[in-house]
Design goal:
Blueprint (H helix, E strand, L loop, with lengths): L5 H17 L5 H17 L3 H24 L4 H28 L13 H17 L8 H9 L12 H10 L5 H34 L6 H32 L17 H7 L2 H16 L2 H14 L1 H4 L2 H18 L3 H30 L7 H23 L3 H13 L15 H22 L4 H6 L3 H18 L17
């Protein structure tokens, strides 16, 4: 059962909300927990045992660290060492399961992975690490930890939340109020629009050309690459809208995962706007610890003694950045394309980092107005090529395929053949795809300017307001990509 299916939005979610609302508030956490495990069981069956193991390991590690702090007679480094050993054991258990399910296939061993293991594993690590750091108190309530790790709207695709962000609201048992219910379903509608109007309609183009790229001209490959980038964005951000809307119904504010990424200024800014919770997790639990680690700082001092401060100031951030992007690539899957993708962005962001001061000096010296339309168009074009090139390798089956597609784009690019191409879409699909993309683009432009469509719609008079939302429902029902002639498209990021 995936989030964009009617069984979720019209049956599972409203049934859970109804049961949640009718039981006394002190028992509502039980309804949510039961819904979490039923949802997990419906998709992964007996693999639910691994979620239980991860939950027990996470809870036990937190309590173990708390016990060491409360009962240990040693202080300082000795106490830190004891805490670190408990933390290492807990991370070994949860991270070990992720490695077994996702990465042993490199060696010919293949296992069916539980849903969401890539996401809830990062949440287990963040909770255990925060308890170790003392920023979160170890919870004595196993049910609260279980709710945090298994909340059904976010179990498949995230967002990756922190314990301090959601645990209390999940357990609070607040009433489902009218505003939250309406606002939550409005956001779910918007997510369904992006997924079913745009992403699923572009899927045939992507499958067809990426599946046998050698048969196609470079211009057709370029079209498929752009279609994949749009598909991935509308699919992933659309699912996030459904997930965050579902949480909103229960009064649970999940962290945002997208913020108009295609309006970014450069690659670094793009990743501050795309898959935000993964980026912040990598920053807080890999980048900062590594850049402040004693061995890294000592190495930076040695570099300073040889090359001076101008070079040494980049040492710690670069080492940490390398491991951030190595981890990003590995997290996405056991494939060279994912590793290449991570290293691709490492190189780009490293170049941006070391050229930041010279570029700023150049802009100031030349009196370039960076807010002027011409400059923003130039940076937008640059980002367009950077993102699409990265997504081409991300989607390719092998790195060799990625370079093969790039070669054809560069050496065999004849736009005139596009008129004769069969992309697997009829004129009806093409028109609706373009309309859907334009609507998403307009909404993103408005959001980038601080204008909320939902707030504007809420300010309309009642008949107009409900007419607006009913029109959107009918639009999805009539023009959504499902039914006869359409192939069911799985959620892309649920596979990572």
């Amino acid at each position: 059962m995936e989030y964009h299916l009617l069984t979720y939005s019209l049956f599972f979610l409203p049934l859970t909300a109804a049961l949640y609302q009718v039981v006394p508030s002190r028992f509502r956490w039980l309804v949510l927990l039961a819904a979490d495990y039923i949802f997990f069981w419906m998709i992964s069956k007996w693999l639910i045992i691994y979620l239980l193991i991860a939950t027990l390991a996470t809870y036990g590690t937190g309590r173990g660290i708390a016990y060491v702090v409360e009962h240990s007679s040693v202080k300082g480094k000795l106490l830190t060492g004891k805490k670190r050993r408990v933390l290492a054991l807990g991370i070994t258990v949860t991270l070990g399961m992720l490695i077994i399910f996702k990465y042993l296939k490199i060696f010919g061993l293949s296992f069916v992975a539980p849903i969401g293991i890539s996401y809830y594993t990062l949440q287990t690590i963040s909770y255990m690490t925060d308890v170790y750091r003392g920023t979160v108190k170890a919870d004595t309530n196993l049910a609260r930890v279980a709710l945090y790790l298994s909340f059904f709207p976010q179990i498949m695709e995230g967002p990756i939340s922190r314990y301090s962000e959601t645990a209390d609201s999940l357990f609070a048992g607040r009433d489902i109020c009218y505003d939250n219910l309406v606002s939550g379903y409005q956001r779910i509608l918007w997510g369904l629009f992006k997924k079913m109007m745009v992403a699923d309609r572009l899927a045939p183009v992507v499958f067809k050309i990426f599946g046998d790229y050698k048969r196609y001209d470079g211009s057709a490959i370029a079209v498929a690459v752009v279609c994949y980038t749009i598909q991935l964005y509308t699919e992933f951000s659309g699912c996030m809208d459904i997930i965050l809307g579902s949480g909103e119904i229960f009064g649970v504010k999940l962290p945002e995962n997208f913020r108009q990424p295609f309006f970014a200024k450069n690659a670094s800014d793009f990743w501050r706007r795309w898959h935000i919770t993964l980026g912040t997790w990598l920053k807080d639990y890999i980048f900062y610890p590594l850049s402040l680690a004693k061995p890294v700082k000592n190495f930076a001092k040695k570099v300073k003694g040889v090359f001076g401060i101008g070079i040494s100031k980049f040492v710690a951030p670069t080492i940490a950045l390398f491991f951030v992007w190595l981890s990003n690539g590995i997290w996405h899957g056991a494939g060279w394309t994912y590793l290449f993708y991570g290293m691709y962005y490492f190189v780009l962001i490293f170049i941006e980092t070391i050229t930041e001061e010279p570029v700023a000096h150049f802009i100031e010296h030349r009196h370039i107005q960076t807010q002027k339309p011409f400059w923003r168009i130039l940076t937008g074009i640059k980002l367009f090529f950077i993102v699409n090139l990265g997504e081409m390798f991300f989607r390719a089956t092998t790195v060799t395929q990625g370079f093969g597609m790039l070669q054809k784009i560069c050496t065999s690019f004849h736009p005139s053949v596009l008129r004769e191409m069969d992309f697997g879409l009829d004129n009806y699909d093409i028109i609706l795809s373009v309309v859907g993309i334009l609507i998403v683009l307009i909404v993103d432009i408005l959001h980038e300017r601080g204008i909320s469509i939902r707030e504007k719609a809420a300010s309309l008079k009642l008949p107009l307001r409900w007419s607006f939302w009913y029109a959107m429902i009918l639009f999805i029902i009539i023009f959504g990509a499902y039914g006869a002639g359409y192939t069911f498209v799985d959620m892309i990021y649920a596979a990572y």
